[in-house]
Amino acid sequence: MASPKFQLLSFLWIAGVASAGSMVLHERRAAPPAGFTSRGAAPASEMLTLRVGLASNNINGLQDHLVSVSTPGSTDFRQWLSADDVKAYVQPSPVTIDAFSSFASVNGLQPNVVSPSGDWVSISLSVSQANALFAANFEHFTHPDMTAPLTRTLSLSLPEELVGHVEVLHPTTAFDTPKPRLSASRAAGSRRSRRAIPPDSCLGPEDTITPACLQTLYGIPLTPATQTSNTLLVTGYTENWPQTAALELFLQTFRPDMPSNTTWALESLDGGVDTQGQ
């Protein structure tokens, strides 16, 4: 545990940085997640690579458009967006780009764009610079199930000029929870537990999965559905065409309760065909 004197000096140093410019609290957590232990401040010279999520210029518009193209009866129904259409919604506005570029330039940072739409960039900087720029206190945290420490901070602030332009700074206050390591005996027991005894409806020839088997495994009701307006979409890709004869044979074999002449409505995209007999 740090001495009271060290804690006081740390607090005064952070407060001094914050007072040098107007800072706005962005993220804070009271303590690290269970299992993580602080091992003290990270070395000032340690280099960090942080990813910066810049605000999209119209993410709400993208969400509204996606709902519209997916809603039957909408004037936009099935008017799918191109990659350029999506980029127009997601890319940062010129104001956001200018704000972050100015911040980076003043502080000697060289952002690298790491996403197609330019809404994610990465920056490399030392722990001391990250602490100063974001009123942070990066520490080393260890976990019993991790071989190397994480460098994280419990608090993060943004300069006022970046508020509304920077949405995410990662990894800073986010802790990756490790998967527990299983002992050899526990791992073997886990594998055995997955070998559940199948119900009688699944004991077909050559491990065939039948509708009756799936109904038993997943508790699918045996009574026919009563909602006549519901539909099921089945996709067929290159050289994978639905076959009328195959469906008829399937229904006769596994669902004799359904008319064997049941068919489907074909929706073709980009010149796709449904060739029978192949």
UniProtKB/TrEMBL annotation:
Secretion signal, residue range per the UniProt entry: 1-20
Gene3D superfamilies according to UniProt: Peptidase S8/S53 domain
Keyword Signal found: yes
BP terms from Gene Ontology: proteolysis
A molecular-function term among this protein's GO annotations: serine-type endopeptidase activity
Residue span of region Disordered: 174-202
Domain Peptidase S53 activation: 33-175
SUPFAM superfamilies in UniProt: Protease propeptides/inhibitors
UniProt keyword annotations, A-Z: Signal
Protein name as annotated: Pro-kumamolisin, activation domain-containing protein
Organism: Mycena albidolilacea
